[in-house]
């Protein structure tokens, strides 16, 4: 009986920890959907790769760092970026495209979704942390393959090809 009680207590603790971690991750997802990040151009790496500095906001720095890759792709698609030497408008300029293809983007930006194919496996350089009120502003340089991202979105029918009007 004591073993059963101990086992139930351990399972209860583990499930409470999992639920608490999931809430933190959902808050980070909401921050991404609410455009709670900034993008800065760093440099072009060649072969369609561009390095951007992503500033993500979160109460916990570890969650902000996890969101940086997703925020980088999201920013290239929907916000664009600028910085010293370059300005790039968003790949998807029409707001109607976002709602028209909402289901596609839900699966695209899901945890471990297709967006991961367009960012480097490792985050370039080190991160910076700035305390802003109760939140942390985390700056991380991420490499995004814009050429392949555009090509795949054209194939999926989300974007028109650059040669479409000719």
The whole-number mean of residue pLDDT values reads 78
Could you list the spans in which at least 5 consecutive residues all have pLDDT below 50? none
SSE arrangement, N to C:
HEEHEEHHEEH
Helix percent reads 40-55%
| Spatial gap, N to C terminus | 77 Å
Largest sheet features: 4 strands, antiparallel
Name the shape in a single word: globular
Please list the strands of the largest sheet in the order they lie side by side: 1-2-6-5
| Structural class assignment | alpha+beta
| Total E-strand runs | 6
Strand content: 25-35%
Our count of helices gives 5
Annotation keywords:
two-stranded antiparallel ribbon; single chain; 166 residues; alpha+beta; 6 strands; 4-stranded antiparallel β-sheet
In terms of topology, how is this protein built?
Elements: H1 2-33, E1 37-46, E2 49-58, H2 61-78, E3 81-83, E4 86-88, H3 95-100, H4 102-108, E5 124-132, E6 135-145, H5 146-155
Antiparallel strand pairs: 1-2, 2-6, 3-4, 5-6
Helix pairs in contact: 1-2
Provide a compact summary of the structure:
With 166 residues, this protein is of the alpha+beta class.
Q: Mind explaining what this structure looks like?
A:
The strands form two sheets. The protein has a four-stranded antiparallel beta sheet. A two-stranded antiparallel sheet has the order 3-4. It has 166 residues and is α+β, with helices and mostly antiparallel strands. Strand 1 and strand 2 form a beta hairpin. The relative contact order is 0.16. The protein starts with a helix and ends in an 11-residue tail after the last helix. The protein has one domain.
């Amino acid at each position: 009986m004591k073993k059963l009680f101990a086992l139930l207590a351990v399972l209860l603790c583990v499930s409470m920890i999992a639920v608490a971690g999931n809430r933190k991750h959902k808050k980070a997802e909401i921050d991404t959907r609410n455009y709670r990040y900034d993008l800065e151009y760093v440099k072009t790496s060649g072969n369609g790769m561009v390095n951007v500095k992503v500033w993500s906001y979160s109460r916990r720095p570890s969650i902000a760092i996890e969101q940086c890759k997703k925020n980088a792709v999201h920013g290239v698609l929907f916000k664009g970026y600028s910085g010293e030497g370059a300005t790039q408008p968003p790949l998807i300029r029409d707001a109607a495209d976002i709602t028209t293809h909402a289901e596609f983007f839900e699966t695209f930006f899901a945890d471990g979704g297709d967006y991961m194919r367009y960012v480097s496996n490792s985050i370039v350089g080190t991160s910076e942390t700035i305390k802003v009120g109760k939140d942390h502003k985390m700056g991380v340089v991420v490499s995004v393959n814009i050429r392949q991202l555009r090509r795949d979105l054209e194939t999926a029918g989300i974007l028109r090809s650059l040669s479409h009007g000719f």
